[in-house]
Structures are given as structure tokens and as C-alpha cells.
Design goal:
There is one protein chain. The longest helix is centred in the first third of the chain and has 12 residues. By secondary structure, the chain is α+β, with helices and mostly antiparallel strands. The protein has a four-stranded mixed β-sheet, covered by helices on one side.
């Protein structure tokens, strides 16, 4: 199964989370979504989002130009 990619670079809070939630709702349980963001608050936001929902944060990477989150739909 190939993960879908959501490019939320350039968007400020809360848009990356809102778009992620909408995309995850459209996926089958167990599917993976890779989210790209540039918002510095996104690390806190995505960790909180996954801790308070059924979704699982599989990976987080802080790159030189953006953050990458890999999330499994619960």
C-alpha cells in the first residue's frame, strides 16, 4: 500500500491539521498519509492531534525546508 501525500507547506495553523483530518476521513482504516508542512507549530499540533484521536503518528522528520509527518488512519 502506497501512502498518500498531503502538501500543506505554506499554510499556517490550523489549516494543516484541518486538511489532514479531512484527508484522513476519506481514507480506509490503516491507510497511511504523509503530510508536509512548514508551520513551526505543526510538530506540537500533529503530536497532539494524534494523541487525542484514533490516528497514529508513525514518523516525524524535521528537514531543512519542511516537516514530514507519517500518520496511520485509525
Amino acid at each position: 500500500m502506497t501512502a498518500e501525500i498531503l502538501d500543506a507547506r505554506g499554510l499556517a495553523c490550523p489549516l494543516p491539521i484541518l486538511r489532514t483530518r479531512r484527508r484522513l476521513d476519506a481514507l480506509a482504516p490503516g491507510a497511511e498519509l504523509v503530510v508536509l508542512t512548514t508551520d513551526p507549530a505543526s510538530e506540537i499540533d500533529f503530536r497532539h492531534f494524534c494523541n487525542t484521536t484514533e490516528h497514529e503518528l508513525l514518523a516525524f522528520e524535521r528537514g531543512p525546508e519542511h516537516f514530514t509527518f507519517t500518520i496511520r488512519r485509525g
